[in-house]
């Protein structure tokens, strides 16, 4: 009987043990045992993927989490990592070598920007940035040594959107690996593989956890690509903890219902704040005045849980706004059941120069809001009373 992804996210589970547990078990163990020396020898032969040896290599709880994300993303296989950044870094390290070239959207998460600009060049890997608003500029950046193209859509924190299919088609034409960070949308809202992406990765720390408890990352895609990534992670060590995998696999049971509510709350906030006298703009992928609204509608089932707005008063107003909040949390995480406000210019993207920040839309007064699951009026009222004070 075929089932919907919502059902599979709840029902896909490690085979029940002899304890007949209902909830999925947690295999909190560093290593696994064998019945004989021969069996142990066989497990180590050919980097076996079938037998659990050691939890840096594989673990049933982590495997359940991976299987669910792969299923939701429409991918053949996947691999999990300790953090989202470990997923990003492991992907770059697996598929890029000295002398290679990577093209990335300039609007990417701050630490991803740091890897691209500070670390990859150290190892002889060059990068080029393109503007998410000008995807037509990508083709001119392609060189014979271009191996990988990287985007976040929606981007953090600018909420820029790119046409995944158009970029995938270009990458296919030039034999370039296309990697999408799908952290802001989650597979409940957007499945980039459907539009031609080769690999999709996540900071599972965000909406996949959904309650701000654990860190995690995951990369999914075709089996042959995942095998290469798996071997990198197995040998270099940024593997996911079984405990975190257990938290995350349980969280996936509620991903769809949570994303619907996050998006409904975010849309309500965005619509209600449009035209507010203290703001010079509100940005949300499903607002018709979003520059890539039509693309967002084409590839996302809702606008996601994040919105941004620009305070007319710049940095000063930004600080006053955050200090005036009474309920919304002041923290740099996102994708939590609790609404969160942050000021990217002074936090997540503070490592960028002022010019770099402006080039990716991070203006001094930009506030990023991760809409939580509270009653929408309570979130809105907190924002409105804080706006009154700045
Ligand atoms: C879009 C995006 N990608 C990657 C990361 C990195 O994830 P982690 O903090 O789990 O390492 C983040 C974190 O905020 C993010 O927002």
Can you give a write-up of this model?
It is built from 14 helices and 12 strands. Helix 7 links the parallel strand 4 and strand 5. It is of the alpha/beta class and 390 residues long. It has a 7-stranded mixed β-sheet, with helices on both faces. The chain is globular, with a radius of gyration of 21 Å. Helix 10 runs parallel beside helix 14. The mean pLDDT is 95. The relative contact order is 0.13. Bound molecules: pyridoxal-5'-phosphate. Pyridoxal-5'-phosphate binds next to helix 4. Pyridoxal-5'-phosphate (PLP) binds next to helix 4.
Whole-angstrom Rg: 21 Å
Q: Would you identify the regions where 5 or more consecutive residues have pLDDT less than 50?
A: none
Number of helices: 14
Q: How are the strands of the largest sheet arranged?
A: 1-7-6-5-4-2-3
Estimate the global geometry from the Cα principal axes.
globular
The tally of strands reads 12
């Amino acid at each position: 009987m075929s089932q919907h992804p919502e059902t599979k996210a709840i029902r896909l589970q490690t085979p029940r043990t002899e304890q007949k547990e209902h909830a999925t078990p947690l295999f909190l163990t560093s290593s696994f045992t064998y019945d004989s020396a021969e069996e142990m020898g066989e497990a180590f032969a050919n980097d076996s993927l079938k037998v659990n040896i050691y939890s840096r290599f594989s673990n049933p709880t982590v495997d359940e989490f991976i299987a669910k994300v792969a299923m939701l993303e429409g991918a053949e296989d996947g691999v999990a990592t300790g953090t989202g950044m470990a997923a990003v870094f492991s992907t770059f390290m697996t598929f890029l070598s000295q002398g290679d070239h990577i093209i990335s959207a300039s609007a990417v998460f701050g630490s991803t920007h740091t890897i691209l600009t500070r670390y990859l060049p150290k190892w002889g890997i060059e990068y080029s940035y393109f503007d998410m608003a000008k995807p037509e500029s990508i083709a001119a950046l392609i060189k014979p040594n271009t191996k990988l193209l990287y985007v976040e859509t929606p981007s953090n924190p600018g909420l820029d959107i790119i046409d995944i299919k158009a970029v995938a088609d270009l990458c296919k034409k030039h034999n370039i690996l296309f990697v999408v960070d799908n952290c802001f949308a989650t597979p409940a809202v957007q499945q980039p593989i459907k539009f031609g992406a080769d690999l999709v990765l996540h900071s599972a720390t965000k909406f996949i956890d959904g309650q701000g408890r654990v860190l995690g990352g995951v990369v999914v895609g075709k089996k042959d690509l995942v095998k290469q990534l798996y071997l990198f992670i197995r040998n270099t060590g940024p593997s996911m903890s079984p405990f975190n995998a257990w938290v995350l696999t349980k969280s996936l049971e509620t991903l769809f219902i949570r994303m619907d509510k996050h998006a409904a709350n975010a849309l309500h906030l965005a619509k209600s704040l449009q035209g507010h006298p203290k703001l010079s703009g509100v940005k949300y992928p499903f607002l018709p005045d979003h520059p890539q609204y039509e693309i967002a509608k084409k590839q996302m089932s809702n606008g996601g849980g994040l919105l941004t707005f620009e305070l007319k008063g710049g940095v000063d107003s930004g600080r006053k706004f955050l200090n005036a909040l009474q309920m919304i949390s002041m923290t740099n995480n996102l994708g939590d059941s609790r609404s969160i406000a942050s000021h990217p210019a002074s936090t997540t993207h503070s490592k960028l120069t002022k010019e770099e920040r402006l080039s990716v839309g991070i203006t001094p007064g930009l506030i990023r809001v991760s809409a939580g699951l509270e009653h929408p009026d309570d979130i809105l009222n907190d924002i409105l009373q804080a706006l009154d004070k700045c």
